[in-house]
Design goal:
This protein folds into three domains: about 5-160, Beta-Lactamase (2-Layer Sandwich), CATH 3.30.450.40; about 190-200 and about 325-430, Beta Barrel (Elongation Factor Tu (Ef-tu), domain 3); about 205-260 and about 290-325, OB fold (Dihydrolipoamide Acetyltransferase, E2P). The strands form four sheets. A six-stranded antiparallel beta barrel has the order 6-15-18-17-16-19. Strands 2-1-5-4-3 form a five-stranded antiparallel beta sheet. Strands 7-14-12-9 form a four-stranded antiparallel beta sheet, with no helix packed on it. The chain starts with 5 loop residues before the first helix and ends with a helix. The chain has helices at about 5-20, 25-40, 70-85, 85-90, 140-160, 170-185, 240-260, 270-290, 410-415, 420-430; strands at about 45-50, 55-60, 95, 110-120, 125-130, 190-200, 205-210, 215-220, 225, 230-235, 290-295, 300, 315, 320-325, 330-335, 350-355, 360-365, 380-390, 400-410. It is built from ten helices and 19 strands.
Amino acid sequence: MAQPSVELLQALLKLERQIREAPDPEALAKVITVQGQSVLGFKDAVFYSGANANRMRPRAASNETIIDPSSPVLAWIEKLFELHSSQLDSGSSFVASEDSRSPVKNFLPKNVLFIPLHHSKHGLLGCIVFTKTANFSRKEIFLINHVAGTISHALGVFFKKPKQVLGLGITQLAAFISIVVFLLSVFPINLTALAPVEVVSYQPEIIKAPFDGVIEEITVEPFSKVGPGTLIARLNNYRLKAVYDDVVQKVLKAESRISSKQGKSVGQGPQLDLENLKTIMQKTEKRLLQTNIRAQSNGIAIIKSPREWKGRLVKAGEKILEIADPREVEFVLKIPARHADLISHGSSVKVFLDRSPFSSLAASVVDTSLVPAKSDTPEKYYIFKASLGESQTPPHIGQKGIARIYGERSNLLFLIFRGQMKFAQTIFGL
């Protein structure tokens, strides 16, 4: 291996100093993805943090378009995390295979390198994904692994447990907790519930099948922009074309027979037959035009896996996809049945999305359900809807996360014994 130049060593030492002096994880992420680009020679870099390969979250990227929620790159990277979780947990790097790159070949260069950030004490702390047009050389991989060790050490500093601030023994601590519990039981607090949440479109245009048929293709990609008249789906029209061509020939023959008898009396029978054939021709032509399904409004297409629709049978009026305004969104909450009675119209909601778990969005409940929703699990839940608060940027449609819903105010004793109270009400009819 050729010896690195003096300039490269100086740049590497400067980069390591910036990594060690980073005041917080956000600054560290910026140093890795931006400052390290010129030193390590990669094209793009994505920094993920997390102690589990299946639950990592993107923190920063040298190119912000890569971590856009509508980009397929994030889903592809997280899928490879799952496939290679054992390698990442053990601290082994790997290069994405050529076959696995097909979903993102138009978004990323040919070579994609996954470097786990493994700490000797804390274990897996994250992963950095590097991309490059040319192959990564042995020298580049050596330098990247060296810098990764420095990054892992810096991340380990942020994972250290805080020092104790209360020098209390077990007896004093127990007494302190007892006092706190007593005060909480006397003074009222907000009863809260946690529930899965998803960002959905508000009053979207529903695109339905005009009649029974077979989907030939979906012509739009998920979250792509469409406008009035945009072709978004096509039904199979081979049989309709055959019927239309046959009817047209019959109309032409009927008209020819009637025109050949000019000057002679023509009975009502041929005229009626011609009118019936023309009616059938017009109806068939109208259906042929309806096989090309077009959007009626501006927005983005909301559909999952367009290619899976090809060849699928649909009934008249069956929903195919939605056209949504990305600025008009709402939240769908799945409230467990045991907490549904705490929530009412107007209850405050704080939404924590998976893409930005450390920041929240304010919302309020606007629609409640009295009928339990169908679920694959034994536990029942109810569907609630919440609207986004004013002067807040609408999140991307399709994102998921966790919502904290604030119900009525009560004391801690009621919260602790609420289950027993409900049981008593059921048994004794109170």
